[in-house]
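Q: Structure tokens for this one, please.
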Amino acid sequence: MQQNPDPYRDIPLYPLVNPRSIAFFGASNRFTAMGTNQLNSVLALGFEGKIYPVHPSEPTVLGLPAYKDVADLPEVPDLAVLVLPTAIVIPTLEACGKKGIRHAIVVSGGFKEVSPEGAALEQELTAVAQRYGIRFLGPNCLGVVNPHHLFNVTFASFEGRPGFIGLASQSGSLLTQMFRYLEQFRIGFSTGLSVGNEASIDIVDCMAYLAACPHTKVIGLYIESIRRGRAFIKAARRIAPHKPIVAFYAGGSEAGRSAALSHTGSLAGPDRLYDGVFRQSGVIRADTITELFDFCWVLGSCTPPRSRRIVVLTHSGGPGAAAADACSRNGLTLPRLGAATRERLRPLIPATGSLNNPVDLTFSKDPLEYFNAIPQVVLEDPDTDGMLVYCFAPPKNMRRIMESQGLSLEDIDKLTEAVAQEIAKRSAGLAASHAKPVIGFTYQGPEMPIIKGLLESGLPVLPSPERGARAMAALARYRELVDKISKSG
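A: Here is the predicted structure, written as tokens:
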């Protein structure tokens, strides 16, 4: 495997996220074992480096030559992965240290999260790691996924594509559950890190790595507690002006605090405290996990608006009104279009339509005009700083029109695909050419040809006007927070 030429390879966590070789403890030929599942995940994504299973009795594991002891390995691996019973984790990590391994992922649980005795074991684990200069994720975590490096050491097979969202999560399974969820929108992870109990590597360390990672455009955080509050604020204020950070905090309520304590042994703080920490740090707060990924999606795809002045474009009154209402509820304003803009739009809008804001066609005769010519005019209006577009283009309607013109089924399929691709092509450059955000919203599924094409082109199309408006408001809030940080120094 070729050496990675990226300049961020000297960052402390680089070998852990981009290993060239792995020592794997806890995998066997028993397919129900957790470690076996995780090694299968590494193999399934096509990891190109060396893998050294360590097993006391099996000569091979999943077709790979196995070694009885880490001391027997032919080289010092970049990374050790431990999926072992709690009782043997500490001596195994010590053996790794003696071998010279300096990075590890400790998947095993049974530490701080379960009991005072477990907390004492975790202190002992940390002491061993410090003695040998080992940095490790965990314990009680699910590891790392880095699709750009073909590396996935979580228990779930990776479903998706390399993307731009970097996630550091205090919930391991959340990471794996989002693989398929993100893929439906044609987006994905740049890197995902499950930090577990954070005995060695914590959220702040992960933020530093993701800030330097060239594949990461936006950083997402799932947080149950922040161990190093001052370090978090300092790091976030340094990172946020250059790379957006979105956080979901799950420990604000009494029930959330109780769940966090049993999950990772963390003590969560009052909701208002975290609200203040995020505002002071320039971090965009998401109220739900859905919002966490909606906001990451648009912040990694769109230019933040210069102000909160937004135009809604629709060819259906109901969704347009819903979008306008959602904009108002989220602090966005819908300015009246200028006279010059209204005159330019008049030939493109049916007599039954509206030149107000929302701009409502009531019926779209030409989807190419709706997705290109009309937005072009709107975005050139100096009082418009962003646009929400209702995306509804039922393929059966298009097919019916084409059938009436005597086209064959084969020609209809080709033309439908061509129209979708042309719309996507024209829409893709719209936002970039005007440096203004364009966000679509729809009630159609992402598999619909035009929606699919728009998503493939990089245009965010969210599944409701409310989610679209909240995402646009998050973009505006990011601009305001960054401006505030810049002014305060």
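A few notes: The chain has 17 helices and 19 strands. The radius of gyration is 25 Å.
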